[in-house]
Design a protein that fits this description.
Mean pLDDT: 82
Radius of gyration: 27 Å
Order of helices and strands: HHEHHEEEEHEEHEEEEHHE
Number of helices: 8
Structural class: alpha+beta
Strand order of the largest sheet: 2-3-4-6-5
Low-confidence stretches: 1-45
Largest sheet: 5 strands, mixed, barrel
Helix content: 25-40%
Length: 273
Amino acid sequence: MNRFLQKDNFIHKLWNPKRAIALAIAVVMLPACTNNLEARDPEPPENNVTTEEVVDNTNQLIGKTVTVRSTPVEKITPSTFTIRDKQFFSSEPILVVNASGKPFVLPADSGTPIQATGPVRQFVVADIEREYNLDLDPKLYAEYENKPAIIAQSLAQAPKPGEITTDPRQYYGKRLAVTGEVENIRSANSFTLDEDKLFGGEDLLVLHPTPQAKVTEGEKVAVTGVLRPFVVAELERDYELTWDLDLRRKLEAEYSNKPVLVATEVYPSAIPQ
């Protein structure tokens, strides 16, 4: 009889209504908590910031990958230079170290901005030399020691669409980062970027051979890619295009031997136009 009573008491405790209710509430709330965490925690891999923000918010940005779009100030060596935002001439220039593994030539026009993407670091010349296999003369970097720097994994000139179409020859074959407003969608993989009326140039044709997402007219986007002359035979040879005959003829008639930006990436622009 005692064994039956003990068993009954055990079952009563196991199925205690209060515990059952608490457990049910916890099970219902757990997915909601998890979803809230997932919505709040992840951060984008790249943050569009100004050089002034890098200087002012160094502690928050250390170790994070950022993208800056700024004007070159001074070339120090072939692999290092300084940049500063045009609108903040009173701000302190910051150092950019080219760690992309590819040579980068600063724009001939000092007013042409460049786009640099990479982690923000506290610049310590010995550490940067060792980690990125660079040969840096400490004497040239005394004023930048322990100050914020961008260790660029990607670099590109960043002219405006109208600047490119006005004088494309200086940009042919170069990797560019161009922001602008989508104006005329010609097909699933081609559209134009609106030129800046101040420059008097024409719209810039963009060809995105492998588009990941659709763009919409009026959307402000950033496009990275290589500029080349629009020659239909060469483009069809190098990329798998899906133009029908009518579109092919129209594009060839309108853009033959004009510049086309062959895009590797197209994404929403966080930079105001």
